[in-house]
Specification:
The chain has about 400 residues and is α+β, with helices and mostly antiparallel strands. The protein contains 8 helices and 15 strands. It has helices at about 1-35, 45-50, 55-60, 85-100, 105-115, 120-135, 250-255, 285-290, and strands at about 70-75, 75-80, 140-145, 145-150, 150-160, 170-175, 180-185, 195-205, 210-215, 220-225, 240-245, 275, 345, 355-360, 390-395. Strands 3, 4, 5, 7 and 8 form a 5-stranded antiparallel beta sheet that branches. A 3-stranded antiparallel beta sheet has the order 6-9-10, with no helix packed on it. A 3-stranded antiparallel beta sheet has the order 11-15-12, covered by helices on one side.
Amino acid sequence: MKKNTSVFLGLFLLLSVSALAQDCDKLLHQSLYSFTQMTNTGSFSKDLRTYYLSEGFRTDMKNGKWGGSVTLPIEGVPVTLGMDFSENNYNEFRNKIINQTELNISKDFYQTTFSTIPNTNLYDAYVKCVEIVNDKSRTGFIQGTNVETEDIVVFNFYYRPQAPGDAMPVVSSFNVQPEGSVISGGLSVGQTLSAFSFVITCKRDAEKDLILSLQTNRGPYVSKSVAEGALSSSKDLPIGTIVSSLLNFEQFSFTTKNNEKSLDGKTWSSKKSKWAPCDGRSLPDSKYSTISSLPNAPDLRGLFLRGLNDFDPKYTTPPSDLSQLNPDQPGLGKYQKDEFKRHNHNSNAISGGGGSFEEGHGDPNYGGSGATIDFAGNSSETRSKNVSVYYYIKIN
């Protein structure tokens, strides 16, 4: 009898895990609708295909929303489109999708495509869901990874009974603040939770935190999405923006809620934090590195900023004063040391007669018979008037 019971329980858990894994797939599908603003017609594959053929996808790619590139498995062959695509690249990519009635989405697609999306919470939510499914020791309400965009937050959480046959929770109260934020997936008083994973989609206010509160006969669940705030809004300050500040990094991080999305909400992380000091540090897994292909923050310690000679290669009109251009432009993000412009010094003291001394030739301490050498300046460098500040760069 014990053997049969064990076999039954094992089979039950196996079937349950399989069903729960499918819930993880549904979670990612629903989150993607919010992330891409796709129209939900009931067929995820068809909706995704329509989105990839839309002008919205083209714009998202150009703006770096999908990172450096997006790869789709079409008939088993990966097809990639980069954010710097040409018209021919885009037409080739689009034609291959046109020839597909639907896109067959698999777990491999999630792992190869969603992991490259700059909004890494979308991929993290799926990965965490799978981890929870495989961890049979976790029961009760379980915090998922909220999927966040500039305009929308997708709350996701899980409930796992302690044992097969345990009753699922019954909702006694459900609330999201600010009021009126819920777009889809709200819960009703008296409702019995019947699924493993739950997805609540809400519109967000850049200045107000979103707080989800759920009370049930099996205990409470609370989740919070921190407001981005005006200073750190991606709408106003895109990835790669450099700002100057009189606040040190600890003060700046506190003011901008810089580390709210890190594991403990306090520690700086190149993957989760929004800002990094411009001190040359490595930025693995940051959106900045994904989009720019630059592995490190610029090192601006002790330096001024100077514009490149060209901002847009399609705009060829030169400046009114060509002397403002950098004659030895080192390239984007490259350091250029201080130097004096090559010039001549006239001297009437050399050998007692008129003449000139060209910098870089001869002995500058030699002035000839009866010469007097005058040293000018009191500093160790030549510089303009300045005020010292901190520089920070937006990385996520």
